[in-house]
């Protein structure tokens, strides 16, 4: 029987960030991350849009992303391993939420709360929006909220950077499937892997993303996390655009950001997403290209008529890990000692990964988190019926 001090189930950005932060915080024991697919072909963090924003409607989410913004600003240097330096390309071009008559009251409330909680945000007039994005249709808008420190990063480089840095710090990666979790007297005792067999451990971290509920079931605990398909599309702009788009969030839900040319001669591009709120739960990676013309293109061109000649390049689908209140569960399970959770980010996993790694490291090592109080994100809230709502999901 093999042994480890900590086993982390899931080696995406969240699991790798936890392993990395444990090492950075001085944990010297053996850490094993079990990742079932080292290609990460279907990993949510590999297929993400890469957005990073402080603009939330709750103090804990704002604090988590404020921590992450500072981390991502220095990500490439932090994650350098030998001569290899990742190119996460964190572009702090901002997030711009647009408010029309229907969305204005909620966005106004959120703006006031964000200001009170220390988020760097500005309320923009319609004229200021027009000056920032001259081609935008603004006749139905009332105002906008802009976060100048926010932006987006390259998801693949973020994932690769976290994994390489964790590995260089002595975190071990095992390509395998966890098929069993052992417990005794209300405490975890180990995991069973399909190929490697058993690993005795006093601490297990569930960082399995959309598959968190299945891992929880192996441990005999209930975690209300369901996978939900999310579509993204990439398209060429009609010409080299004279300015760079921030992440723009239209009141109708479609949002887009620039994707800068990787080399000279490569077309100028944008990436778009729009959450389908009635999307059925389930593991579905099929890209429904009909949604481009049905849901994306009309809303994009209505807001920005100058993009009527955009050319669709490709589309893909990844998975959100949805909880009933669209907020994560972070912490030790109240009925199973040694079983920690970092799940249910509902589309916000990459942007919160640095803070999550730091918080879970503190919870494991110290029994509490001094960096950010995540008590409200306990899984126990679901059993108590005390759902934790945040109006800022997009």
What's the CATH C level of the largest domain?
Alpha Beta
Average of per-residue pLDDT values: 95
Overall radius of gyration: 21 Å
The neighbouring-strand order within the major sheet is: 6-7-5-15-16-17-14-18
Query: Quaternary state, please?
Result: single chain
Portion of residues in beta strands equals: 25-35%
Main β sheet profile: 8 strands, mixed
Helix content: 25-40%
Outline, from the CA principal axes? globular
Structural class: alpha/beta
Q: Looking at CATH, which topology of the largest domain would you report?
A: FAD/NAD(P)-binding domain
SSE order, as H and E? EEHEEHHEHEHEEHEEEEEHEEEEHEEEHH
First-last Cα distance: 45 Å
Output the CATH homologous superfamily of the largest domain.
Answer: FAD/NAD(P)-binding domain
Description:
By secondary structure, the protein is of the alpha/beta class. It has 2 domains: 2-83 and 155-224 and 324-384, 3-Layer(bba) Sandwich (FAD/NAD(P)-binding domain), CATH 3.50.50; 95-147 and 227-322, D-Amino Acid Oxidase, Chain A, domain 2. The chain has helices at 13-24, 59-73, 75-78, 104-116, 126-132, 155-168, 212-218, 290-303, 349-366, 380-384, and strands spanning 2-3, 6-9, 31-35, 51-52, 95-100, 122-124, 141-147, 151-152, 172-175, 178-184, 187-193, 197-200, 204-206, 226-236, 247-249, 255-259, 269-273, 311-322, 329-332, 339-343. The chain has an 8-stranded mixed β-sheet, with helices on both faces. A hairpin with a 5-residue loop joins strand 15 (247-249) and strand 16. Helix 1 (13-24) packs parallel to helix 6 (155-168) and helix 2 (59-73) packs across helix 9. The model has no long low-confidence stretch (mean pLDDT 95).
């Amino acid at each position: 029987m093999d042994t480890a001090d900590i086993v982390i189930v899931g080696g995406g950005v969240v699991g790798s960030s936890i392993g990395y932060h444990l090492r950075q915080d001085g944990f010297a024991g053996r850490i094993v991350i079990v990742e079932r697919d080292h290609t990460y072909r279907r990993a949510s963090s590999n297929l993400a849009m890469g957005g990073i924003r402080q603009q939330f409607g709750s103090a804990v989410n704002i604090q988590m992303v404020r921590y992450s913004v500072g981390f991502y600003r220095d990500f490439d240097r932090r994650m350098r391993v030998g001569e290899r330096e990742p190119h996460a390309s964190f572009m702090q071009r901002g997030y711009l939420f647009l408010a029309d008559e229907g969305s204005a009251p909620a966005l106004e409330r959120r703006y006031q709360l964000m200001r009170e909680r220390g988020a760097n945000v500005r309320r923009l007039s319609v004229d200021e929006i027009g000056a920032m994005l001259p081609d935008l249709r603004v006749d139905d808008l009332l105002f906008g909220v802009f976060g100048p420190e926010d932006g987006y990063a390259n998801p693949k480089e973020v994932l690769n950077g976290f994994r390489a840095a964790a590995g260089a710090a002595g975190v071990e990666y095992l390509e395998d499937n966890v098929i069993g979790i052992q417990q005794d007297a209300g405490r975890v005792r180990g995991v069973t892997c399909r190929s490697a067999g058993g690993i005795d451990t006093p601490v297990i971290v569930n960082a399995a993303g959309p598959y968190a509920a299945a891992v929880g079931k192996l441990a005999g605990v209930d975690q209300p996390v369901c996978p939900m398909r999310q579509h993204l599309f990439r398209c060429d702009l009609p010409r080299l655009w004279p300015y760079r788009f921030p992440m723009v969030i239209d009141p109708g839900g479609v949002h887009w950001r620039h994707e800068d040319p990787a080399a000279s001669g490569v077309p100028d591009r944008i990436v778009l997403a729009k959450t389908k709120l009635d999307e059925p739960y389930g593991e579905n990676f099929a890209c429904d290209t009909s949604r481009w013309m049905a849901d994306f293109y009309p809303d994009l061109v209505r807001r920005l008529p100058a993009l009527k000649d955009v050319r669709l390049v490709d589309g893909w689908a990844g998975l959100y890990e949805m909880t009933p209140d669209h907020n994560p569960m972070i912490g030790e399970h109240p009925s199973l000692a040694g079983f920690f959770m970092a799940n249910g980010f509902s589309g916000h996993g990459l942007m919160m990964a640095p803070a999550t790694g730091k918080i879970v490291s503190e919870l494991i090592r110290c029994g509490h988190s001094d960096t950010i109080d995540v008590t409200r994100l306990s899984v126990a809230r679901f059993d108590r019926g005390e759902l934790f709502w945040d109006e800022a999901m997009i």
